[in-house]
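Exercise 7. Given the encoded structure of a 200-residue chain, write a plausible sequence.
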């Protein structure tokens, strides 16, 4: 896989990285994140202000991005290529996932989804969640403790989309318990979301 990268220095030890992939097979995908400069291999503070060519890497569990391009006045752009990590692909296979598409693999790597997170989902009964939803769960901070807390409140075996919706709307165990004290028990996920989004 290949695409274009953009980096803007934040002057606080971090940079804003945007990865854009334009593979015609699955359309343009773009991911932005803020990373410490130390996360990159071969990229230094001096290079951010240099006009010379730059070559550096960003290693993820899902694979490694290799960058080529140049910087000027603390901003840079160029091309990236991605090489998947065989061990990560094998992990997905062991957990029963089909081989990821290029789009899914790009999202896993760009979002830095960890193998430990996939293993946690498996232990909690979410091993069959589609790869696209794994990325959504990870990037929306749907942690294992959060999933367990919902289960303890009676909400188990939810779908990936339900977990994301509950998390992003601030529905947690405390909110559910507060409703129960008011006599609102055994509510559906849709009802919980409706009450939360309407300011309850």
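Solution.
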């Amino acid at each position: 896989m290949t695409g274009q990268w953009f980096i803007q220095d934040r002057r606080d030890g971090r940079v804003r990285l945007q990865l854009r992939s334009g593979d015609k097979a699955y359309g343009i995908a773009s991911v932005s994140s803020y990373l410490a400069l130390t996360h990159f291999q071969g990229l230094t503070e001096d290079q951010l202000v240099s006009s010379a060519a730059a070559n550096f890497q960003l290693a993820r569990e899902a694979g490694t991005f290799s960058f080529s391009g140049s910087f000027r006045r603390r901003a840079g752009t160029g091309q990236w290529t991605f090489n998947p990590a065989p061990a990560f692909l094998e992990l997905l296979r062991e957990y029963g996932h089909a081989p990821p598409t290029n789009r899914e693999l790009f999202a896993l790597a760009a979002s830095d989804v960890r193998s430990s997170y996939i293993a946690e989902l498996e232990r909690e009964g979410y091993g069959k969640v589609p790869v696209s939803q794994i990325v959504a769960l990870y990037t929306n901070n749907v942690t294992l403790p959060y999933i367990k807390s919902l289960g303890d409140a009676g909400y188990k075996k939810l779908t990936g989309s339900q977990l994301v919706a509950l998390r992003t709307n601030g529905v947690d165990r405390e909110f559910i318990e507060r409703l129960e004290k008011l006599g609102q028990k055994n509510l559906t996920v849709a009802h919980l979301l409706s009450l939360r989004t309407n300011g309850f």
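Remark. The chain has two domains: 2-84, 104-197. Students should compare their own answers with the one above.
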